[in-house]
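For homework, think about our next protein:
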Amino acid sequence: MTLALPSARWRKAAVGALALAALLGIAHLLPATGRSVPGASGAARYAPVVRTTLVDSVTVSGTLGFGDAVDAQFISRARSGIVTWIAPEGSVVERGEPLFAIDGQPVVLFYGDLPPFRSLRFHGDSFGEFEWLELDNARDEERRAELELAARRAQQAEAAERLAEMRAHVADSGRDEPRTPQFVRLAQAVAAARDRLRRIEALAEKNYASAAEVQDAAYGLAAAQAELDAARRERQLQLAAAEAALAETRLAVHRAERALRDARDARDALLASSNDDADVAVLRANLAALGFEGPAAASIRRWQHESGRSATGLVEPGHIVVAPGPVRIAAHLAGVGDVVYSRREGQLDLAPTGNTSSQVLRYTSTARTVTVPLELADLEHARQGDEVTITLPTGAEVRGVVRKVGRELDPQGRAEAGIDIPDQQALGSLEAASVDVEFTTGRREDVLAVPITALLALPGGGYGVEVTDGNAARLVEVETGLFAGGMVEVSGEGIAEGMRVRVP
């Protein structure tokens, strides 16, 4: 759409305002004062309409370093060990080389993504033939739990039988004519004492027995009755003990059942991963890369022997540290001669002294990376795989690739982004520094663009540009798109590549 040009005075004011807006990065709507076509006045400057790619960006400060540090820990079936060697700080450890040694046994670096998680003993020629110690132990624990449950159930049955027997004895002890030999004797003694008392009392009525004899007979009856009552109370106590014993055996059975369930769950959890031999693949690939090929058991023993380990054919998680590639020793967390305590299956054995240290050293990647704290508003501009431009303190620029973007905010409300640098040589000897990272926030390819200062606000809203064709000039209405680098994307029926537009 072509419109009449406004006055030169208005155009000069509008251009000045738009130039200021461009410097501030803000587009302002400017009022129009007329639509008359003026003559050209003053020295005018023109810029071509170009077809280009516009890229907008935001720059954030970051830190160059060696990335996240990882703690290497002592893992063993043994409770503790002594550090006998440790790689120097700042040194680089590659595949097959030791990171540290515990009790003279080196812990070596392998490359891969999956850390070792089980103890495997190889006997045959195939890497698929091995004993899985944790699974064997889990099965042994399941069998032990089964035997324990069987024993507890047998004890429960015995306790139930004993309780039934005691209930029968208690019931029998309360009868007038008991059947239990003990109570038969006691009941007979009471009956005999009662008969004797009646006889003595009858004789005393006829003055054939003295009061002392009557009293003695009464004492005899009381003693016999007391003995019977004591026996009955003893039976009640035995009954209570039998009931308590049965309750205890029931609790023991419940505990044994729970232990068996736990043992089976642990076994099943291991069996669930029994078909995943990714750890074996990592072991095999690293041995092959180190030149240890051939039958599995033989190659493992040769590797162990040449590495300085005992050649047992048993490979445990604590024998190997797995990392994606070479590592750089960032810091020592223990020293030669220190005692460290094993962390196994996520549980830390406590030392008698209360020391709980299992960490030996801390390592990083050998590749330098950049860490950038991003404000919440900038997170949308950082996506995994995106390319960024990193400006070094020297002013040199290097390409980076977003490796990860954190999803947890720190107390300042920022999330951390990690950036890889493919061309490590471009960094020279620089190991740590503050850098600027430029993230792309918008990109438009193959679009028409003009300088932002060429925009003129139209009276009815929107924007236009003054296009010149030789001595003639006209105002062309345009639609704006991306603003970037002092340029603005424009489109419309009256605008084309190669046209010249007036700029302040």
Notes: The first strand starts at residue 2 and ends at 3. The chain has three domains: 1-67+368-504, 70-127+277-363, 136-272.
